[in-house]
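Problem 12. The chain below contains 527 residues. Write out its predicted structure in token notation.
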Amino acid sequence: MLQRSLLSKPVLGFIFPLWCLANTADSLRQLSTRGNDYIVGLLGSALIISRDGMFRHRAVWLQDGVRRNLPQLKALLADTTFLPRTILSDSPQLTVLGTVNTAHRSTELAVRRWNGTEWSLPEPLKELNSSAWDGHPALSPDGQWLAFASDRPGRGGLDLYISPRLPDGGWGTPQNLGAAVNTPADEAMPWFLPDGRLIFATRRYDHFPTRWKLAVARRNADGSWEWNAFVPPPLTSEDGNEISPVVWHDTLFFASDRRGGRGGYDLYAFPLCGPVTVVLHSNSPIPAARTTVTVSGSDGLERRWEAAPAELRFAARAFQHYTVRVHQPCRPPVEVQFQPPCDFSHSVVYHQTISLPKTFVAQTAVLPLPGNTAYRPLTTEHAWASVLRWSFQLRPTPLTPAQLPTWNIGAAQETELLLDSLVQLLYHLAGRPECLSSGSPLVEITGTAAPEDTLFYAGPPLSFGSLALAPGMVLSGQQLALVRAHALGVELQRRLPSPLSPLRWRFEAQLSSGNPVVICRVQLGAD
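Solution.
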């Protein structure tokens, strides 16, 4: 059978010179011969091709790809017993997934590992292999699923199977993709799309009797798989077979014996997806002035708008990762990441909403309690605060991290860094009068404590707002949380210089289990 011979013939390895990808429907004449030429796999950005009959095996670097592991690849292709398909892992060592010939003129799934000087012998994946023919392995984009073809007893002919990666790095029991995908005919040569769908070759007799065509399956929320669609023309021909699909970014490579080729199966490359236009929206108006929007993509796209209009549009590519960053005065920077979808036969307009916060910043700090005990926690909190007041009594401005003293207690130093970052924030607001046009900033501080806390206070008399503390008081969790909120406010006010733009303060208590947390939120013009 065609699909079996593709992975069973011996090959002689050599590296083909750099080739630039042609985004046309023409066959890749510089690579195709009058014989049969197939796509074997993809190792990084190296496309692996095979010539049937000439017993040759090649690696072709794709345009804009990174030529990595060249010596290792040369050594790998020189071995005719193993046919590489894809990289299984490159950390901590380079591991390649492929197939190896068996003594019964069949193949089984195996891996080879590069130890720094040479490749290991093929290691069969015993948990996946059977006594039948097993081949065409493909790895999902997240590395958590392995799909392959096998003619073990199933729904008939070659079927597609999938196996999950286990926590120990092994593979679970292979599962047949089911009647929605596998037919009494043959399904083989799977390859994952970047969005997790599976493209494969099929000989569904009800559509294309005896001919191989490319189709796509997708995984449902319950883990089952269903038929998605046939790949449309011009990727599919009316008169030929299409086999061995491999996807690199948004380009589909495959072999076809359609009319117009050089003979037998020839190699083709097509844009898999229609044009993509990304439209950026915001949940609130973006002021045109003093706003910078930047877009960067894994395809090398870099765009920048100094004055952002209400709606931003730019041309993108499906399956690529894009990052949008919005910088505005008086607001924290916003970052949004997304991946536009792919449509095989239509252009796509992809809408992405950017949520611009009304709050300038929100920071959460874990207040450490050095030497804390269940009996006198506030005593240690008070002692820690006293040390801070003594150490920084004469400090006129916030310190930089390089100026901080060396603390014997790492948790106290961590809290000190947090306090200085909050002071730096309030300094920033004080120096930006345009940020105060809607009113003085509100500093809202919430302290937390466990609901079951009932604590004895043994410190000196202290007053926090409406709460007065005296030695011997037994504080509830609500009172303890409020004390923590006020303690942070007192420390921030002490560190801020005068004069400073007016600030409004609000202190609240919240009961929650776990380590005590102080939440500080600065709002602009809030009521």
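Discussion. Helices lie at 2-6, 70-77, 377-391, 410-430, 477-495. Students who got a different answer should revisit the alignment rule from Section 12.3.
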